[in-house]
Queue: 3 jobs
Job 1
Amino acid sequence: MRPPALAPQLKREPLGRNVADLSSAMRTRTFIRWALVLALVVSLGCRRKASTWVISGSQAESVVIGLAQEKGSRIPLEDLDEFTVTTCPSADTSRREVWTVTAISTRPSIPTQIRYGVVPSGFTAPNAAPALKPGCYEALAIGTGIAASVRFEVRADGEVMELTR
């Protein structure tokens, strides 16, 4: 005659929890930690290099903004959706949009320079660009995973100066 089969017994910890519950909790915590690390890496990885600057020699009637992955580079931005020039906000006035161009195709040829008032190929502008009066302006390049801006001042003599923040 064979002895009766014994049901498997779980080891108990001194606090009364069994090892199976503890290892499941540890696996869950480990999974959550790795999920958070992965989310952090993905969110940091989505941000792409982007830089904007005023091209030397720009004048009020011909402001040229450089756009590239790094200042002075000829490597274009990836996925530029919109380029906007606004007035600078101040204590007395809020930011006001002056001129905007928006991509009309999903893969436009991204320029490395945009001349104020001239709509690049693959983009559209809802309005003509008004003349820039003396004052502070900001050019913004916005797209999927990119954002860059540069402030500049148009002086009374027509000279354009890039401003540092």
Job 2
Amino acid sequence: MIFIATALVTASVHAQPTPDTKFKPPIERPAYPQGTGPVVLIDEAHFNWHTATGRYLPFADLLRRDGYVVQASKSPFEKDALKHGNILVIANALDERNSTNWFPPYTSAFSDKEIKAVHDWVNEGGSLLLIADHLPWPAAANSWPPHSVSITARVTLWTKRRWPSR
């Protein structure tokens, strides 16, 4: 019985997505000299699935090799924290409840105060890259004002028990 449980746990651990840290695409002409480019803040304060030291390590490394300065953003979004960055990357943020439970209800990963801080920061010249994969992530990021970001949490499910015949 212990062997079966161990095998199941081991199999599920290997099924998790892992970053390819060995992939280093060539950069013939970096955009900026090493460490002198714009500051890219990668959000790690909202139970993010992707972080600069985790699943987005290859992305962070690519940016660094292209001259950008990459920093983890580990605190809630506030004007003072955002002023140090030029680009904010938010990838698959979740509310604390949904970080361990991917079933509805889905609540916003961001407070109203954070949304206002990011909105104001973008209006003052900051750039936002907001990434939301499949549920629950789009629902957790759906609280942005409709005139700034629009995300729909649409999913297509095949409800029949058999595949359609051709």
Job 3
Amino acid sequence: MYPEFAQSREEWQSRFLWLNNQNPAGPGLTFVAECEGKIVGQTAFVALDIRIGDKVVRAAQNIDLMTHPDYRGRGIRSKLEAYGLEEVKKAGFAILVGFTHEAAFRGHLRAGWIDVGRMQSFVKPLNWSKAVRLKVRNKLASELLAVFARLAFRMFRENRQVRATAKVRPIRSFDARIDVLCAKKSSKVPLMVARTGSHLNWRYGGPGEKYSAFVAEEESEITGYIVLKEVEQGDMKLLLIFDLIALSPIAAHSLILEATEISRLEGNDLII
């Protein structure tokens, strides 16, 4: 359905087992649509625990809703989604969450989804020339803008320089101390994914995925963690901050400084 994301049968099976059999929140649900003897559509729901106040409820995240390009416009997607939503209710999931894109946004609203907001993205350019070229195609204009942007950012940074005091170190896996950190954080946040060490080890230990994780420590107590992933997009090298939890501004700042330093050493162009 999406040749640019093509996977072998072994890779698909490995991902399926990871999403379901290895998920500490339990197995999810997967449904397919068939037409003329072919699988022409798919939707899946991954089990997820969400903490609301002091309660943990069983939720599911809708992923991989797709229809084969040759069979679009026949209502397959809407029928598949409606069937999946009904089965999710029968399975006892209390909440359904999802992330969509502009092309599918209105379809989700028609299916009964509620728009609760847009995700905000923050970027930190390290290579201003490449960053500006994302918006300005003229080479001379982009180079001039890059020079001015670099100078302006340098002045702004010097005026707001803050020293980090938390100790940051890399970790190979999340242990029980992360459970304590996340429990403290969840008491201050009304709604969030119920993070535990087992959940994080599963979430960032998927087949074929490569993440790096770091923790911040203050007085021998873990007060934050960050999860990073390096990707390439065209001729740009990006460092993505996938997850960040901190109990204090010092911990958050220390972890972001560590990500920035890693990105500079690796020659990345942009942090997102």
